[in-house]
Amino acid sequence: MAMGALAAGQARAARIYEPSPMQTFGVDSRTNVFPIGQPKVSSAILDAGVWYKFVVTGEWTPDYRYGPFSLEQLQANPALLAQVPWRADARFATEDTWVTNSDFDPKNYDDFGLHSSFIGAGDDDFWEASNAIHSYEYEVLGSAQSADFYVQDVNYGDNFGGYTVKLFRAADVSPAVSPASVPGPLPALGAAAAFGFSRKLRKRIKGSTNALSSSNSL
Fold it and tell me: Regarding predicted confidence, which is higher, 55 or 13?
């Protein structure tokens, strides 16, 4: 697990993130299958001590031939992927169009999903529980390095689909200082008050001295 990553079941703090992602990138099931030697996709550098949130959406099929469409038809209209029964999202897989799902491929081929060596130590279990919109998020504390992502599979030629990953940076929530709350020139005011008090004190001393002189002359 990456330094600063949340352990399984660890509660998240109520952090506020910038409304727009600082980076958006794709991870493709035909070109980013790392176990067979294809390249991983890396995020921007995560500054040390800063919290970040990754949000991933998308699905892919380990074999488009289980559906009614050719690869060319799917490439021309990616929305047709929803009719292919064998699919995987970032963590789970199904063979019946999400009527049921499992963490490991129900056909027992592989642990299909969006994996990361930096965050998940080569696994995808850090993503959240299954959900109907197939959108997952994960928070991590930056340590001056990037996060890597890849598709877990043993082949790529019959794959189709992939993921969209958005990276959000924690917002600066320091309260703004209004002009009314800024203190005035205290040193100058303090000097003026001290000067006024000094004049009054000298006047009182002088008055006391004159009174004493008058009393002695009598």
Answer: 55
Q: Which residue has the tokens 């919109």?
A: 133
Annotate 116-135 with b (16+ C-beta within 10 A) or e (fewer). Answer: bebbbeebbebbeeeeeebe
**Single pTM value for the model:** 0.75
CATH number of the domain bearing residue 38:
2.60.120
CB neighbours of 181 closer than 8 A, spacing ≥ 6?
Answer: none
Q: Contact 161/26 with Cβ under 8 angstroms? A: no
- Confidence check: pLDDT of 88 > 60: yes
User: Domain range holding 79?
Assistant: 23-169
Whether 81 maps to a domain, the answer reads yes
Provide, rounded to the nearest whole percent, the portion of the chain with pLDDT above 70.
73
Q: Is residue 200 part of a domain?
A: no
Residue 189's pLDDT is what? 47
45 vs 116: CA distance, rounded Å: 15
